[in-house]
Design goal:
It is a single chain. A nine-stranded mixed sheet has the order 1-2-6-5-4-7-8-15-14, with helices on both faces. It has a four-stranded mixed sheet with strand order 3-13-10-9. The chain is globular, with a radius of gyration of 20 Å. It folds into two domains: 120 residues, no CATH class; 178 residues, 3-Layer(aba) Sandwich (Rossmann fold), CATH 3.40.50.150. The protein is an alpha/beta fold. The longest helix is centred in the first third of the chain and has 21 residues. The chain binds S-adenosylmethionine.
C-alpha cells in the first residue's frame, strides 16, 4: 500500500499488512514451542516499544547510543566523501536521531537528495519522514514500513546509495539469520553502493549487563511490552506481572540475552495460536539477543556476504565500530 503524505516530498510504502497473518502466527507458535522458547524480537517494536527504545537510548547505562553518535560526529564527512552517496537508506531506522549527523554531512557535501527510512514500526517511519522533510528543505523521503528480513526488494530505486544499519541491530540476529540478511542487503545494492554496519564490541561484562538492566527499569518495560503486543496480536492471556525481566551475558555465544522469566507456575492461553503454554516457575522465554563482536568476526561476516571492507571508524575505548564496506 502506498501513500503520499501531506507533502510531495514524502512517500510511504507499507508492506507489513500485505503479509498473510498465518505466517506470523506460525512463527510465534513455533518459537514458543522451541527450545529455548523464543519470541521474534521485531515484535518488541510496536509504537509503544519504539518510544521506550528512544528512552533507553537516553539512559546513562546505555553507552552505545552516545558512543555511536560521537563516532558519527567525528567521521560523517569522511564516510560521505568515501561513499560519494546522494541517497541514504537506513534499515531499522527507528527515531533516526543519529542519522541527522549523516544527513548534515551529505548536505555539507551538496549531496543530500533522498532518504529511505525502513522500519517495522509504522508510527515511527511516518513521524521521522515528516520531521525530516521539515528539517531539510530539499530532501525527498520515501519511507518503507516492512520487515528487513523479507522485504528488502521494496527499497525504492534512487541514486548512489549509502545503506546504513546502525544501533548494533545486526547483533539482534543470530549467525544464520545475520549471514542471510547481509547477503540479501548486498543483493539489493548496486555496484558502487556502500554499506555502513554498526557493530558493538565485547567489553567488560558489568558494563554490558548494566546497559540492559538500567536502574530506572525502562529496559524491563520495553521487554514486557512484548506481552502487550502478544495480547493484542494473538489474543494471549498472560499478565506482565507474572513475568520478570532478565538480561545476562552468555560468554559462549558472546551475546547479551534478554528473557521474560515466569515468576509462577502458569498456563498461558494463546487463542489465535490454538495453544495453551504451560510454564514452570522460573521458565524463560527469550525475546532478544545482542551479540558483541570483535573486528575479525565482523569482517568475516561482511566478506561472507560479498562486501569489501573500506574502513573502520571506532571510538577510542573500542566499544563500538562502524565498518564502511563496498558491494563487490
Ligand atoms: C536496536 S533499534 C535501532 C534503532 C536506530 N537505528 C538506532 O540506531 O538507534 C532496532 C530498530 O530496528 C527495527 N526493527 C527490528 N526488527 C526489524 C525488522 N525485522 N524489520 C525492520 N525493522 C526492524 C526496530 O523497530 C528498531 O527501530
Amino acid at each position: 500500500m502506498r501513500t503520499t503524505v501531506g507533502s510531495d516530498n514524502i512517500t510511504i510504502d507499507v508492506h507489513l499488512t500485505t503479509q498473510d497473518p498465518a505466517i506470523d502466527r506460525a512463527e510465534i507458535r513455533n518459537g514458543l514451542l522451541s527450545s529455548p522458547r523464543v519470541l521474534p524480537t521485531k515484535y518488541l517494536y510496536d509504537d509503544r516499544g519504539s518510544e521506550l527504545f528512544e528512552q533507553i537510548c537516553e539512559l546513562p547505562e546505555y553507552y552505545q547510543t552516545r558512543t555511536e553518535f560521537q563516532i558519527l560526529v567525528t567521521c560523517a564527512d569522511k564516510i560521505i566523501a568515501r561513499s560519494d552517496a546522494d541517497e541514504l537508506v537506513e534499515l531499522g531506522s527507528g527515531a533516526a536521531t543519529k542519522t541527522r549527523v549523516l544527513l548534515d554531512a551529505m548536505d555539507r557535501a551538496g549531496q543530500l537528495n533522498f532518504y529511505v527510512p525502513f522500519d517495522v514500526s509504522e508510527g515511527i517511519v511516518r513521524r521521522v519522514s515528516q520531521e525530516l522533510v521539515e528539517e531539510y528543505a530539499a530532501l525527498k523521503v520515501h519511507g518503507v514500513v516492512g520487515d528487513f528480513l523479507s522485504h528488502l526488494e521494496h527499497i525504492p530505486d534512487g541514486g548512489k546509495r549509502l545503506v546504513v544499519f546502525l544501533g548494533g541491530t545486526i547483533g539482534n540476529l543470530d549467525d544464520v539469520a545475520g549471514a542471510a540478511f547481509l547477503s540479501s542487503v548486498n543483493k539489493a545494492m548496486e555496484l558502487g553502493d556502500h554499506f555502513l554496519l554498526s557493530v558493538q564490541f565485547v567489553t567488560e561484562v558489568n558494563r554490558l549487563e548494566a546497559a540492559y538492566n538500567d536502574s530506572k527499569g525502562v529496559t524491563a518495560k520495553f521487554n514486557k511490552n512484548m506481552i502487550s503486543v502478544m495480547q493484542e496480536m494473538v489474543r494471549a492471556d498472560f499478565s506482565p506481572d507474572a513475568f520478570d525481566h532478565v538480561a545476562r551475558f552468555n560468554h559462549v555465544e558472546s551475546r547479551i540475552e534478554i528473557f521474560l522469566r515466569s515468576n509462577k507456575r502458569q498456563a498461558v492461553i494463546f487463542q489465535d495460536l490454538d495453544l495453551v503454554l504451560s510454564l514452570e516457575n522460573g521458565e524463560e522465554i527469550r525475546t532478544e539477543i545482542s551479540t558483541k563482536y570483535d573486528r575479525k568476526r565482523a569482517e568475516q561476516l561482511l566478506a561472507d556476504a560479498n562486501f569489501e571492507l573500506v574502513e573502520w571508524y571506532v571510538d577510542s575505548d573500542e566499544l563500538l565500530g562502524l565498518a564502511l564496506a563496498k558491494k563487490l
